[in-house]
Every structure is written in C-alpha cells, then in structure tokens.
Amino acid sequence: MAEGGIPPTLRCTPQVICSEETYAKAKRPRIGIDAAFVKEYRSGGKNAMASLHEYCQKLRMSLSFQHESSTDGFGKFAFCAVVEGVRYSPGAAGNKKEAKRLAAVNAMEVLLTSGPIPPQGGAAIHPDSVVAPPQPGPRVPVAVVPPTVPPRPPIAPIEITECDDLARQSEIAMGELDDVIPASLAALMSPVYAVISMKRSVNSSAEVVAIGTGNGPAASHLMVQDTGRAMFDLSAVVVARRSLTRFLHRELKSFYEQKRDSIFELVESRKLLRVRQGISFHMYTNVCPLGDADRYTVQFNTDGPLTQEDKDLMDSGELRPNLSVGGPLTVKIGGNQVIDSSKVTGSLHCMSDSDKILKWNMLGLQGSLLSLVIQPVYLQSVTVGSRYQHGHLARALCCRVDTDITQRLPEDYTLFYTLLGRRTDCTPFGAVPREAGLSVNWSIGDTKVEVCDPETGRSHPSSPFISGTTMASRLCKAANLNRFRQLVVACALAVPGLAQSSTYAELKSLCSDYIAVKRLFESHMADKNYGPWIHKAECVNQFQK
User: 347 or 508: whose pLDDT is higher?
Assistant: First the structure.
C-alpha cells in the first residue's frame, strides 16, 4: 500500500496551477498554533482526529469528512478531510473509522508543515504541488518568485470553550458511530443528532454516555397497533434521553451489586439514591431544538461569529430570555411541522423538543419509573451547533416557568436553570429535513447500535442490534418496564405496590411525586395560556410485559 494508507489512484493531482495570491498564501507558514500543540500531537499525546478538530476550532475553520470512492482493492472505505472547502489527501482502510483517522493524519501533516490551504475553484491545492503561476513571455525552466504581497494579519488563536469541547467530543463520537452503521442504511440516516455527555468533576473531560439521532414523530398508524413496543417520538433529543436511562439502569445495578464505582450514592434520610456530588450531564445537539426555541430563530443570522455578549452570557450562566414573542406549547406532526398545541386535531402528535427539555428541567431526565429509586437527574447544560439565539433559547428551555412554582414542588424536585451555549464556530445547518430519516440509539456499555425505522417505530431489519422477533426497540416502553422489573428483582429493591401493579400504567401511578410535578407543570402552562400538553391515548400504557 502507498505511504499513509493512500492508494495511488486516490492521490491528489501532483501539480495545480494557481493565482499569484493563492501561491503566496499556500506557502505561508502556519499561524495561530503554538509549539505545545504541535509537540503534543507529534509525541502521540493527542490523536489525529481530536487534533484536527482542535486545530480547526482554534483557527475558526470549517471541517468535515467526505467519502471517496475506492475501487482499486486497497481499502473498502476512503475519506478525505475537507478544511475550509479544501480537500486534503484521502485515507483508505477496511473500515470507516480507520479511513477517517488516516485522512486526519494526512491533513494534519500538511497543516502543520505548510499551514491551511486557501480554496481555489473547489479543487484541492497542496503546498508541495503548487507551482508558480504562468508569466508573460517565454517559459523559464526555473522557479519564478511570486511578487511581494502584503501579509494577511495573522488569525489570533481563540480559547477553546467548554461548549467547543462538548461539540468536538460529540462529533468524534458521531464519527465512530458512522463506522458501525451498515452501508445500506447510511444514506437513509437522519442528519439531526443529540449527544449526552457526563463529567465526573468540574475540571474533568466530558465522556459521551448516550447518543440519539432522528428528526420527527413516527407514523400515526402505530397507536392502534401498539402494545408498548413501538416508539412514537424518534426526535434526536428524545432518543438520547431514553438512551441515557439505560445508562442509569446500568449504574444503579452496579451500585447495588457493588461491582465498581457507581455514579450514585445513597441518601439515608430519603432512602433514595442520588447522583454523586460533582457529576453533571450535558447535552449537545447539532440543531436548535424544534419548537419554541427554533421557530423564532429562522429570521436571525445566528450562525455568525460568537459575540462578546454571547460569551459573557455563556460564562455567567445568565439566561436573559426574550419574552416579547413565543411561549406557546407546540407539537410535532407529520412532515416535521410544528404547530401550537391549542390547534391540534387528529391522531398521533408529539410535543416539541423545546417543550420536552423545558419539562425535564422540572421533572428530570430519569423518567417516572426510576424516580421511585433515585432523585431527579437534571441537565447541567445544553449546547447547540446552529441557530443559537440566546434570548429565544433561554425563554423556550427555561424561562416559560415562573420561579415561584418551586415553593409548590415536592422534596427533591426543583426548577433547574440549565446553562445554555453554542460552539464558537457555529455552522449553519439549514432547514431540518421534512422526511424523517432512520433513527440511531446507543449508550455506553452497548456493543451494538440500534437503528429504528420511523415508519414502524421499531428496529430496522438491517439494524446491527435487534432485540427479538417482534423488532421492538430497546428504548420502547415495554423494554423500559422489563428493565425496571429486572433491576428491582436483581437488587432486591423495596418498591411499595409493585407486586400489585400488573400493567405499565398501574406501575407509573406509584410515582406520586413525579406525577404531582408533572401535573403542576402542565397546569402552570395552561394557566399562562401557553396551551395544553398533548397526551397519547391511555390505552398505550395498558400492557403487562
């Protein structure tokens, strides 16, 4: 194989004739990257993929990976890194992950040797292949020194914020997820994703624990066929939250079996577990959550450079909501449209992502059943990758609920004020696709990803993980009920009323505090004329296993 894993047929053109300005820029030494960064990369302290993301963030440059065709037998997959629209030499390997790693290595070698290359007509321009521009008169068989041009002011390196770090970790995790998705399904996947990361202390690195992709509700005909085995809402943030609950189940089992250091600790006075001090959960989503947060940002140019005001608000945690517009609860309907909940008619609809995050800031991420054994688990922060507008995001995700409601909440519950932020190099996403693509879910500890079809609300026939012949998703209500019952039995938990609860609905009715908070939240929204919270028919919870 050729050096660097690059098949000869995939190498870039050896010579590119370019303009004088491009020639001068292509040969300019790198700027904005210090020696410590280069040393860490060269010594193997940081891998090529992470280093390339950090390099591009420091210099405010866009980065993506483009699939290349590889038909010469050197590798099944080939990818090239695209930095600021310029394609760098591809890497080829037997799997996507290794191909992308080799592509990152190739890009880093050029970037650290000669600096970023300006785009020229969409073609890749490599410093080693750039030749002097043609000059008038006879050609001279020696290199022509380009004319002196005023040097461009150096690009000052920027501070990598916590939001940038969460975004980078999320993108790397999504890249690794792509590697294990069957090629036949890759083109059908939804481009919308949400990643939940966990930090074990304030200064520790974030660890990705749950991933969800998807951009809409499932088909409306599922309700009449459901026995707790169909997923109704396959939006990314909802799938990511459900994936997180599977992680919480694993951690609970570890606590009771004392097999390893769990994230939970016992609160003796409450006989409940809580997340240990210092541990926090953070969500990154590459698009603004659908609903109230998203619908008012379309008119703004929100994907430009990070302003000082935005940075100050992110650093301070101040919400400063825009209360002049918005507020109504909204629902997602077919075709990925969002309308006010007061106007809903017809069959299956799901509350919008903005409204659900707002509700989780009161009820927690753990769901109703786990609230019987643990205290609420709240999101410490939400970072968006595009369409960030602080005022609208603050109102939608936090500030539609009045603070005085906390006096009426049961013990352990609160109105949690999630920190809001955006990545420094916020990239325009455009309109969310109207067609609901395939949905993927994963949580730490899973050996395989699951791919779900929005047409069935169940596992896709080609999904790497399939639970059984019914194709029920591991995130469906029936699976959640089964996991909880197994946890209770395996850990000998005392849950009053569990033995007498035969259906999912009866078991949920035992979660008295959770239900009280949920009713208080919904009545509060109705009292403020934000509209009703849309519920699915009660029959969907009348299953036993």
Answer: 508
From its phi and psi, is residue 78 left (phi > 0), alpha (psi between -120 and 50) or beta?
Answer: beta
Q: What is the pLDDT of residue 146?
A: 46
| Secondary structure (DSSP) of 351-418 | E-HHHHHHHHHHH-SSHHHHTTTB----EEEEEESS---HHHHHIIIIITS-GGGGGGSPTT------
Say if CB 91 and CB 73 are below 8 A apart. no
CA angle 89, 93, 94 (to 5 degrees): 160
Q: For residue 440, what are the β-bridge partners?
A: 451
> Cα(109)–Cα(111) distance, rounded to whole angstroms?
6
- Asked if the model's pLDDT at residue 526 lies above 70, the reply is yes
DSSP 438: B
pLDDT digits (tens, 9 = 90+) for 231-283: 888 999 999 999 999 999 999 999 998 877 899 998 877 788 999 999 999 99
Cβ neighbours of residue 220 under 8 Å, at least 6 residues apart? 334, 346, 347, 348
Both tokens of residue 179?
Answer: 């590697």
Q: Which of 280, 254, 275 is nearest to 198 (CA)?
A: 280
Residue 271 is given by DSSP the state T
Q: What is the C-alpha separation between 230 and 483, in angstroms, rounded?
A: 16
Average pLDDT (343-349) is: 65
Burial class (CB in 10 A: 0-12, 13-18, 19+), 376: buried
Question: How far is Cα 342 from Cα 109, in angstroms, rounded to an integer?
Answer: 57
Q: Which pLDDT belongs to residue 3?
A: 40
**What is the reported pLDDT for 534?**
85
Write 483-489 long-range contacts (CB < 8 A, 24+). 483/246, 483/249, 484/249, 484/369, 484/370, 487/249, 487/252, 487/253, 487/373
Exposure class string for 52-68: b at 16+ Cβ within 10 A, else e: bbbbbbbbbbebebeeb
Cβ atoms < 10 Å from Cβ of 382: 26
Start-to-end CA span in the chain (Å): 54
Separation of CA 251 from chain center: 22
CB 238 within 8 A of CB 370: no
How far apart CA 188 and CA 394 sit, in angstroms, is 33
CA distance linking residue 60 with residue 187, whole number of Å = 29
Model pLDDT, residue 397? 92
What local confidence, expressed as pLDDT, does residue 10 receive? 36
pTM, to two decimals: 0.74
> What mean pLDDT comes out for the span 358-381?
95
Q: Tell me how far apart the alpha carbons of residues 314 and 435 are, in angstroms, rounded to a whole number.
A: 33
